[in-house]
Known about the structure:
Blueprint: E1 7-12, H1 20-33, E2 37-41, H2 44-49, E3 53-56, H3 83-95, E4 100-105, H4 107-120, E5 124-128, H5 144-165, E6 168-173, H6 180-189, E7 193-195, H7 205-215, E8 221-226, H8 236-246, E9 252-256, H9 268-286, E10 292-297, E11 300-305, H10 306-311, H11 318-327
Parallel strand pairs: 1-2, 1-4, 4-5, 5-10, 6-8, 6-9, 7-8
Antiparallel strand pairs: 2-3, 10-11
Helix pairs in contact: 1-9, 5-6, 6-11
Amino acid sequence: MERHIQTIGILTSGGDAPGMNAAIRAVTRTARFNNINVVGIQRGYQGLIDKEFLKFTSSSVSNTIQRGGTILKTARSKEFMTPEGRKKAYGNMVEAGIDALIVIGGNGSLTGAQLFAREYDIPVIGLPGTIDNDLYGTDSTIGYDSALNTIVECVDKIRDTANSHDRIFFIEVMGRDAGFLAQNSAIASGAEAAIIPEGSTDVDQLAEFIERGKRKSKNSAIVLVSEAQKDGVGGAFYYAERIKNEYPQFDARVTILGHLQRGGTPSAYDRILASRMGYAAIEALLEGQRNIMIGIKNDEIVYVPISRAVKMNKPINQELITVLNVLSM
Ligand code: F6P
């Protein structure tokens, strides 16, 4: 039998991502529009265990759509990974009268949501909030577009030095296990190559890139390197070291962009995406949906079972690899 939802809890978990506040705002305002109470849970699942609850009203989310980070704060809770932690979290939810949970986060956070929902029969709706864009069933995740724009802005600046000094720059970007940030920021910044975990295992991506460069007689180059590499090998320093040893005629440098990729004002695209997804999360709950992630496909909101969103590997469109190769001539 469908339960009547009177109060929802909302939390952000895992790495923060630009646009999370826009999502919190959309969820809160749509819930209030439908006379549903909102409890803001601070510091992700850890806050559920520690009862860090705030009563959220429409004005709690005023003046937040443009802000980076997350007003609810976030955490990667080790305690929630234990059955005891989840039991405590459930007890606190019941005590606070929370009937359903909205979780904004990436792969790990939604995996936790799925486990919790199965153990305690709680309606959970996930929103894909991660700069990595690695959730299956959605064309984009909240924060991905903003991070891409941040990376491209940085690469444009580094290009000036690469050109002036005739250097090869290996710029390492985030993405944990996925190469979306590296591949697409390489295309957007006019870089010479991207080294990503989804690339072919049979090809030495570095040797291939050097060969291509020689053919095109380039003196400087930008290579976007995904922090996620295969077989524990990788990172921009690994490739710069190989240049030093195998191609000493080149002058290589490394830049690790790090956490600056996660900060800053969300792009207009992310704000709109987060607003649509936050609205859809409440609509889905009202329709009786549960244990789904809200996604976007061809500009249409879709519901993806959380089990698929977190388990299936989201493929990189091979055309992007070809486009970069052809255009970097
Ligand atoms: O999942 C988001 C992400 O930014 C990854 O791209 C990165 O590997 C990881 O988080 C870094 O996590 P932390 O901020 O905990 O170091």
